Amino acid sequence: MEASCSLDIDQRQAAAFDRIARLIDQAHTIAICAHTNPDGDALGTELGLLHIIRAHWTGKQVACLLADDAPVPRIYRFLPGAGELMPAAAYEGTPDLFISVDLSVASRLADAQSVLNRSRHACIIDHHPCDDPFGDAWYIRPSAAAASVLVEEFALHLGVPLTPDMGLCFLCGIITDTGRFQYQNTDAEALVASSLLVAAGADPAMVSLNVYQSFRLEFLHLKAAVMARVVTFAHGRIAYSYATSADLERTGASLDEADGLVDVVRSVAGSEIALFLKEVPGGKVRGNLRSKTGLDVSGVARELGGGGHMAAAGFTFEGDVDEALSTVLPKLRALFPDDVARGGTTSFPRIDLS
Ligand code: 5GP
Ligand code: MN
Q1: DSSP 3-state assignment of 193?
Q2: What 3-state DSSP class applies to 347?
Q3: What's the pLDDT at 354?
């Protein structure tokens, strides 16, 4: 069935896409990469773009890189082409063109930064706010729900017919970045983009089955522990929880499985801001911040050396969970300046790390 709606591509976007297409025209070897700790949108855009290049250009040598050595998260291995993803550290080429998707800050390229540095040209298609993008050409629109929407629009601009494989990749990106069309970034463009992908043969139930209904018991036990210790303060407006390395060891869950657990925290009624922390190797803690209202959490993430969107941002903290909470919770409380005046406590709920 043909989808009876379409996506608008304005002149600025068309001109940026033309510049990127010209760079691809002129390149023989191409490396595509997304951010470290890749999510469904990062991998969906990367592989979707691989399928676009193969459909529209012949004779290009394309490598799909993972920013670091971690394996592809289990729930995303169903994406068509996932078997071609390789760690950047194992890639020895000097590409004519480096294409960064779902990412515009070089520091989040991890091992792929050295590939970027030795590439002859670079370009970006992304939806993260960025004042100072790298490369020769870029299209960055923070209002887009997912980078997948923008790369799909790149295919439409080129006149490349959407295939079921492209469709599954981009649909996975849109579904995961909008939290199954539940977050504030869900807009008409994301829904129209999804409709076109489904019309092209992508199966939403396939994304759902792999990403949301294929959890290992080990992960569910970890989720239960995280759920059991959710705490709220600031009159219930801030909610947080965490997973320690001991939790991972005890339950047998893996680090990447803990990625979506901030959704458990944000589900608390009345909470406006959610924080989830997990201990990662090297004495560090990864933090996920979410805002359910108009409050901007990206500033707090940036203060902690991270970044992201207003409603979804992240950071990495040097130290343990206890130290991270002592640093982050006051910053979150400061987003509600009237809370103490309203009788909110100035101390934070006790953290039980047992
Ligand atoms: P998550 O919490 O799911 O890791 O990330 C939420 C959003 O913030 C994503 O768009 C992600 O790319 C961005 N983000 C997460 N961590 C960082 C970080 O350390 N630096 C920057 N610049 N962005 C981040
Ligand atoms: Mn994204």
Answers
A1: helix
A2: coil
A3: 46
pTM of the model: 0.93
pLDDT tens figures, 219-251: 999 999 999 999 999 999 999 999 999 999 999
Question: What is the chain's alpha carbon radius of gyration, rounded to the nearest angstrom?
Answer: 20
- In angstroms, the CA 72 to CA 209 distance is 17
Measured CA to CA, the distance from residue 243 to residue 240 in angstroms comes to 11
Q: Is the CB of 315 under 6 A from ligand 1?
A: yes
Instruction: Quote the tokens at residue 291.
Output: 């805002």
Contact (CB, 8 A) for 193 and 167 = no
State whether the beta carbon of 128 lies less than 6 angstroms from ligand 1.
yes
Long-range CB contacts (within 8 A, 24+) of 151-154 = 151/45, 151/48, 151/49, 151/52, 151/101, 151/125, 152/7, 152/48, 152/193, 152/196, 152/197, 153/7, 153/9, 153/13, 153/17, 153/193, 154/17, 154/20, 154/49, 154/52, 154/125
231 by DSSP, 3-state: which?
strand
Q: At CB < 8 A and 24+ separation, what contacts does 4-12 make?
A: 5/192, 5/195, 5/196, 6/192, 6/196, 7/149, 7/152, 7/153, 7/156, 7/189, 7/192, 7/193, 7/196, 9/153, 9/156, 9/157
Contact 102, 128 (CB under 8 A): yes
Cα–ligand 1 centroid distance for 314 (angstroms): 4
Q: Which runs of consecutive H residues, i.e. helices, occur in 27-163?
A: 40-56, 112-118, 147-158
Q: Nearest-CA neighbor of 326 among 275, 282, 257?
A: 275
CA–CA gap between residue 348 and residue 326 (Å, rounded)? 8
Among candidates 149, 167, 168, which has minimal Cα distance to 157? 149
78-105 per-position pLDDT tens digit: 999 999 999 999 999 999 999 999 999 9
Is residue 51 lining ligand 1, measured as CB closer than 6 Å?
A: no
